Amino acid sequence: MTILLGCGFYFVGYILHTVALNVNFNTKLKPNCSDGSCMRNRKVKNDTSNILILTSGRAGSSFLGEIFKRNHKKTRYVFEPLRKILQNVFIADHLKFKAINIISESFTYRNTRISDQTDQNVVVKELSMRFPQNGSSSVLENLMRNSKSWNMRIIHLVRDPRHVIPSMQRLRWFAGNATSLEQQIRSVCETIWSNIKYGRKRNYALIKDHYKLVVFRNMMIHPYKTAEALYEFA
């Protein structure tokens, strides 16, 4: 079973983060309980599915991605904000990743701790970019409409803005005077709420069982329970 994981997609707001994680599952999952009896010898399907994690910045998408990455030996990790490349990832058109092919050798050599666990020993990451506010929305629409044909699962990660905003402030994501800061903070809160409504209502008929909302706080309190639910969903 192969999962392509796209992560950190600010789909109503103005920041677009995309992460692609290609995970080749073993025929047996690692035990997730003390004696291993609950997961030992459990078979998984030998097919391909895609996972897209939708979230705002500083909402815990890296931790959520690790839940998938750490449970599997073979991982292909690509952090790429370009919308066209994101689409190519989800249709498994890896031949168009010329940049990845060029730099893959150096990444394989330097990131030995991670690359030893990967299928082709390739780990590539690129910093995020900013797109116009409406740019990401059309991409999400297209992904959702094709979610069934691409066997895609959408995980929407939501975090309390009272924790998101201080993290953004530490990274100096906000600029300007006090009035401007208040407006930016208000925009973050409104965007998080808009994303929830967008994902759960506007496109729910399109995706049905392909969409799952995950609250960051619940994931921290019940990490194993959340991980098990996510594996079942994927």
Provide keyphrases for this structure.
234 residues, alpha/beta, Rossmann fold, 7-stranded mixed sheet, 10 helices, globular, disordered N terminus
Overview of this protein structure:
The structure is a single chain. The chain has ten helices and nine strands. The chain is α/β, with parallel strands linked by helices and 234 residues long. The protein has a single domain (50-111, 118-233), classed as 3-Layer(aba) Sandwich (Rossmann fold), CATH 3.40.50.300. Strands 6-5-3-1-4-8-9 form a seven-stranded mixed β-sheet, with helices on both faces. Strands 2-7 form a two-stranded antiparallel ribbon. The longest helix has 25 residues, at 178-202. The radius of gyration is 18 Å and the shape is globular. The model is unreliable at 1-46 and 99-136 (pLDDT under 50).
Number of helices: 10
Task: List how many beta strands DSSP finds.
Answer: 9
CATH class: Alpha Beta
Tally of distinct domains: 1
Element order, helices and strands? Answer: EEEEHEHHHEEHEHHHEHH
Q: For the largest beta sheet, what order do the strands appear in spatially?
A: 6-5-3-1-4-8-9
Topology:
Blueprint: E1 2-6, E2 15-16, E3 19-24, E4 48-54, H1 61-69, E5 74-79, H2 83-90, H3 98-110, H4 112-115, E6 123-125, E7 129-130, H5 135-145, E8 152-158, H6 161-170, H7 178-202, H8 204-207, E9 211-215, H9 216-221, H10 223-233
Parallel strand pairs: 1-4, 4-8, 5-6, 8-9
Antiparallel strand pairs: 1-3, 2-7, 3-5
